[in-house]
Amino acid sequence: MKVAVDLGTVANGEPAELDLEELLSTRLLVQGNSGSGKSHLLRRLLEQSAPYVQQAIIDPEGDFVSFADRFGHLVVDADRTPAELQRIALRIREHRASVVLNLEGLDAEVQMSCAAAFLNGLFEADHAHWFPMLIAVDEAQLFAPAIAGEVSDEARKVSLGAMTNLMCRGRKRGLAGIVATQRLAKLAKNVAAEASNFLMGRTFLDIDMARAADLLGMDRKGAERFRDLEPGHFVALGPALSRRPVAVRIGSVETRGRTGRPSLLSLPEAGGQAMHDLIFAAAPAEDLPPPVSRPVREHVSTHDLLGRVVAAREKPAPEADDERSEAERAALVEDIFAEMLADPASAFRPVPVLYQDFLTHCRLKRLRGAETDMAAFRRRLSLARAGVTAADADEAWQTVLDASDALPEDMQGVFLMLARAARDSADCPDDAALARAYGSHSPSRGRFLLGYMAERGLLTAEADFRGNRVVTILSTGWRAVQKAKPLKLDDARARRAARQSTKF
């Protein structure tokens, strides 16, 4: 099926059309300095072709997320692990969904790693899912740089490899690359050389004008015209566009990005002392962090505690005569566990010792019954260490509790702690916290516990592109993220120097 995409008009007012089917086989390169209208051109092309072909947009600035409202594109935020991005990419090809990979807010190295994982997932799809698909990459010089920059060699190598696969080997898999760059000199030659269609916008540097003119088959005198192009005007050439260089004026678009051409605004009237007060005003009380409240524990001497125990033994209260309701008794048990676990040393005390303390508290509160036996205590201790209360007793939690039965009793509390953090979208406990919940002082014990639970299919523990640990409870899909500690400047420099030294 032949589809002509309307890009705008040529010099004589006739429509400038792009053969979409030919583009799928020959790929497209767009070049123009900042402000020349590259993003506007991409938006026009993608809008006009959206009803006819599946699309994926690699969006480093979040400018194309508006496609979700107008054309139904899915927005894939890159705050995911490499394995998640590859799984999403495989499903995108299988179900022929158009998507926008939003990389906004990430630094350059993370953007490169995310884009590489996503493109590799699209590239490695099963042969049965090699449907035609346009892959538009804005600011392509970020993902396929011609020379090494501030990013690590590993990130550059992975990203450049994914972009090269897209442009060199993607055609047989139905992938047609559309790359836009500010300067051809910044873009890797292996990526630029595979495009057969070109749209060249305003360019000022001699080296870029010379390369653009060479690609379009123009002489040196003709290269000067690139300086005079207005924003939104391009020179087109290629089998999907025109057999000879032709000037094209890009038409209007239906959607708008978050950014655009800057325009002048009136300065605020406030100045002097008024502006000083606005800038240096004290933070409002609601923005201040709340005071940390610490539980106040009653100090009971050993003599008084033993006296209470003796008194409780002398006057036992039969369970049949207990007039308290079941809810009141459960609340007392909750209070006992809260009081016991408030002591930091309780994490490292053996379970039998804690059980004896628990029985002592039960006698003082005249509690007897099924909730005081050893089996119930072990189970309840695991829940208490994880911060699970009776209010959490819903169907999802029951699923987690059933899954924890596959673990040894001393590990169940650690698993429930992870599940509690994941359900509340709280920070994932670090290795030291996991080890402490297990009763160990060694952080390596926490890493062992995560690996042990992952091997038994209870959870997954992966690292995302920022180095954050992402723990997913498989039975419920809850996720908890442990933020990676930022490197100090000296550490970052030392690692960069170590990478550079390995070249020699």
UniProtKB/TrEMBL annotation:
InterPro entries membership: ATPase_Atu1862_pred, HerA-like, HerA_central, P-loop_NTPase
Keyword Nucleotide-binding: yes
GO MF terms, alphabetically ordered: ATP binding
Record's keyword terms, sorted: ATP-binding, Nucleotide-binding
Domain Helicase HerA central, chain residue ranges per copy: 6-78
Pfam families: DUF87
Official protein name in the record: ATP-binding protein
Species per Swiss-Prot/TrEMBL record: Plantimonas leprariae
